[in-house]
Amino acid sequence: ETGVTQTPRHLVMGMTNKKSLKCEQHLGHNAMYWYKQSAKKPLELMFVYNFKEQTENNSVPSRFSPECPNSSHLFLHLHTLQPEDSALYLCASSQNRQEAFFGQGTRLTVV
Amino acid sequence: AQSVSQHNHHVILSEAASLELGCNYSYGGTVNLFWYVQYPGQHLQLLLKYFSGDPLVKGIKGFEAEFIKSKFSFNLRKPSVQWSDTAEYFCAVISSNDYKLSFGAGTTVTVRA
């Protein structure tokens, strides 16, 4: 248990579906991150929020839409995804620029 | 933009052998440096970190890393590995100017009993 909880753990969705990934942290951290982890590829930083403000958007396609309603919750809204978007999506949080704590991830399969 | 390079994709070694994994980063300013480990089926966990001070840092499970500023390197070492060290290892960097925590491609370490 890392203090960062992601739901759901597994998700299968069609290319026309809309779904959301949820991340919650109870560590009092001010920064939250979304990463994509694909087989044989480096961990890709997607979005960063600091005190609910988005500070990084790493050229992520608009079919991925993040939302950070407060410093404890982070969502990733998904719509019109492609099969190549299938991956493990990881959420992390940190306090300032100290070590990040990761959730277990959501294994996403787009069919 | 900052980047992180890990030199080895896959390392295979026997128990009790010594391990060294290379990590270089490209960023001229002040950085915080990390090594993370991901055991099969588990989440990413912090092994060790460097913020400032003594450039030789010790982490959990007998791992250590040395920060060499002139070489932009932060190599990970363990004198004697165990079978349970089989995992994927990631180097990560964050600059003092932003919140962009960047990871290297990872190195898969396989320890044979």
Q: How is this structure best described in words?
A:
The complex is a heterodimer of chains A (111) and B (113). Chain A is mainly beta and 111 residues long. Chain A contains no helices and eleven strands. Chain A has strands at residues 4-7, 10-13, 18-25, 31-37, 44-50, 53-57, 64-70, 73-79, 87-94, 101-102, 106-110. Chain A is globular. In chain A, the strands form two sheets. In chain A, strands 2, 4, 5, 6, 9, 10 and 11 form a seven-stranded mixed beta sheet that branches. A four-stranded antiparallel beta sheet of chain A has the order 1-3-8-7, with no helix packed on it. In chain A, β9 and β10 form a beta hairpin. In chain B, strands 2, 5, 6, 10, 11 and 12 form a six-stranded mixed beta sheet that branches. Chain B is mainly β. Chain B starts with a strand and ends with a strand. Chain B is globular. Chain B is built from no helices and twelve strands. In chain B, a hairpin with a 6-residue loop joins β10 and β11 (102-103). Chain B has strands at residues 3-6, 10-14, 19-21, 23-26, 31-38, 45-50, 56-58, 64-68, 73-78, 87-95, 102-103, 107-112.
User: Helix proportion of residues of chain B, in percent?
Assistant: under 10%
**Total strand count of chain A, please?**
11
What proportion of the residues of chain B form beta strands (DSSP E)?
over 45%
Any low-confidence stretches of chain A, pLDDT <50, length ≥5? none
Major interchain interface with per-chain residue totals: A-B, 24 and 22 residues
Please report the number of helical segments of chain B.
0
- Secondary-structure content class of chain B: mainly beta
Oligomerization state: heterodimer
Radius of gyration of chain B: 14 Å
Helix content of chain A: under 10%
